[in-house]
Amino acid sequence: MEKFVQLVVDGLSTGSVYAALALAIVLVHSATGLVNFAQGGMAVLAAYVAWVLTNQGVPLILAILASIIFSFLLGAVLERFLMRRFERGDPDTAVVVTIGLLTLITGIAGWLWGYNNQQFPSLFPLDTVSVLGVSVSIRSLGTTLVIVVAMVAMQALFAGTKLGLALRAVAINPQSAGYSGLPVERLLMVGWGLAAVLGAVAGALVAPQLTLTPGMLDSALVYALAAVILGGLTSPVGVVVAAWLIGVLENLAAVYVGFIGFDLKVAVPFILIFVVLIVRPQGLFGRKTVVRV
């Protein structure tokens, strides 16, 4: 029983890493209607900014705050000068642009700082606590708590604030939102900026666990996209729950399902996606989209 609980706890910790990126993807989609594949690269770039500042003697908290400000400006600039050219065109073209942007950002990070693993300081102590015979990392608890706070904040933003409602209106129908007097272009910049902020938080949480490299979030991005599909593109709570579910089931399948093991556990989220898309295409917590024709 202790082994089972330990696997669940470790899975929740891993799932929190996926959830951090998934929330950023949902935020961009909720604000612009696009899926941003470059989110992982932007998070890595923010982590490198914080790492450079800490190496210059800046306290970690201040370095992360600076990287968050940098990320907001980066997201807003990318939307204004790059993505705006594609947002009102074919959505598939815009998605391809974000994939190219991911490749570009990863290449720039590697060119500037190399591809060697760098140690990133942790926000939380590396100690563990024992609860009912299960060892729990304080860093994992801290990461999970930050993700829960981010999830609640996002849910509150889109459900109970004028800014969130305006962002949703722009994502659904920017032309009608403009006719209603909403500053569409400014709101699109804010949406990308806020998503980049979430990415910066994700990078700061993940880098101490994975070590900092230009491609450290490549695999996590795949799991984050799986969580988005499972949880639903319209539900911050849904993608966090889905990310936790992926992390837990992946761990349990690796240990208790003999033919999967640790080599094939990467297939677990894709099996879940296949099942969910058949039963509930909008995701476990997503809303059906009604289109008038």
Describe the fold and architecture:
The protein starts with a helix and ends in a 14-residue tail after the last helix. By secondary structure, it is mostly helical. The protein has a two-stranded antiparallel ribbon. Strand 1 (128-131) and strand 2 (134-137) form a beta hairpin. The model has no long low-confidence stretch (mean pLDDT 83). Helix content is 73%, strand content 3%. It has helices at 2-32, 39-55, 60-87, 91-113, 138-160, 162-172, 174-179, 184-210, 218-231, 236-256, 268-279, and strands at 128-131, 134-137. It has a domain at 2-7 and 20-214. One of its GO terms (cellular component) is plasma membrane. It is found in: Cell membrane. It is a multi-pass membrane protein. It holds the Pfam family BPD_transp_2.
Question: Short description, anyone?
Answer:
This protein is 73% helix and 3% strand.
Q: Helix coverage percent of residues?
A: over 70%
Count the DSSP helices.
Answer: 11
The shape, in one word, is globular
Beginning-to-end CA distance, first to last residue = 55 Å
- Main β-sheet, in a few words? 2 strands, antiparallel
Q: Report the sheet-strand fraction.
A: under 5%
Unreliable stretches (pLDDT < 50, length at least 5) are none
Strand order of the largest sheet: 1-2
Overall average residue pLDDT: 83
Give me the strand/helix succession. HHHHEEHHHHHHH
E-strand count: 2
Rg on CA atoms, Å: 19 Å
Secondary-structure content class: mainly alpha
